[in-house]
Amino acid sequence: MNPEAASSTAAADGNVAAAREGLSAGVRTVRVTYPDLHGIQRGKDVPISELERTARGGLTFCWAVMGTDLRHTPVVGGERGYPDMVAHPDLSTLVELPWEPDVAACLADLSREEEPEPTDVRALVRRAEAALTELGLSSLVGPELEFFLCEPDGDGGWRRHVDNLSMVYTVGPQADPRGVLKALLDATSALGLGAIAANHEYMNSQYEINLRECAPLEAADNAFRLKAAVKDYAAQQGLLATFMGKPFNDQGGSGTHLHISLQREGENCFAGDSADGLSSELRQFTAGLIAHAPALMAFLNPTINAYRRILPDSLAPTHGNWGLDNRTTFVRIPPERGAGCRVELRIGDGAANPHLVIAAALFAGLDGIRRELDPGAPLEGDTYTLPEEDQGAALPMSLDQALDALEADETIREAVGEELIETFLTMKRFELERHRQHVSDWDVDEYMHHL
Known about the structure:
By secondary structure, this protein is of the alpha+beta class. The chain folds into two domains: 16-117, Ubiquitin-like (UB roll); 127-439, 2-Layer Sandwich (Creatine Kinase, Chain A, domain 2). The protein contains twelve helices and 18 strands. A hairpin with a 2-residue loop joins strand 4 and strand 5 (100-112). The N and C termini lie far apart (76 Å).
């Protein structure tokens, strides 16, 4: 064995030994997981006795999973003969799962042919962090995630678990009669995901869990693991948790909101001495988000369904604009100043991939700082009621428009990487074509009797 290989093996052995020392005696399985481009948890379970071997060599997966749609079609990968990629456990993320006491889970980094995997979204967020460092900056990101809890309806479908009007901000048994949300808050807090609050949201049986602001990769990992935890625990209870943007016609949708701030030498550089307490960097970052808003929509709203929730008066913005503590704008500046000064990106769908949206938002904002862009004046009041020309540029209102905008945005394409962009575009356009050909219930209800 050469010295480098010996050193690598020793390091792996040391990491495994340290990781196993921190686990309870009852842990029998290690779950090694990673996010695909949809943001879905993929992975393998391995016996705890195999952890050392897995840490050294990783776990192989068919790379086509990164280009497989949600109807189980491998859209990308066949042209290469369906090659392998390797998932390498990141043992620093190893935690025990409160709802599966014999399981510990960790995240993984991906490689292909001993090179970094171009579609690895964790690596993408690391590149965004490196881009911040080049400008002497760091970032804190706080995700807010909304979801619906559903129960079987007896006919093979799903109905809302708690179907009462006006339960927004209600806590306790009336809003959570089986204690599911309370258990999720306890479990995600125990996992170290930074869960700081949970409540029933505005829509019937809609809930939200807020995560503490932290560094971008940690924030993306926390949001990804939270979504998996919510879905796994709900499944154990015989329920379905869905982050689908708009699952019901008679209710509004679920979102993923991002709170982002930038720091320089430990100080919040979004705080300024101007009358409104905002810095030039905040304005430039905001302008970058707005300038790249059409392309960002493909990651922020990555499904056909997502655009059904983007309507006037829905609190989902329809134009690229910004405002001070204004929930009708694309970028909202919350009222806190000083150390709490930040931007809130409000357009994300519940189905958005946290790693993709955090990385893309940071790249867009940094482009605004590099080019010293100006976002214009903040909008006031109900922006939906303003004349069209005063609302800012209209956002894409369909997935196909957003994909076209992403393809045309050279800055975001270069930052995210050509292979990831092309894989995402190809997979999503295949989804659009399937939808175009599908005869829906709406088609039948609308036309069959009359035509």
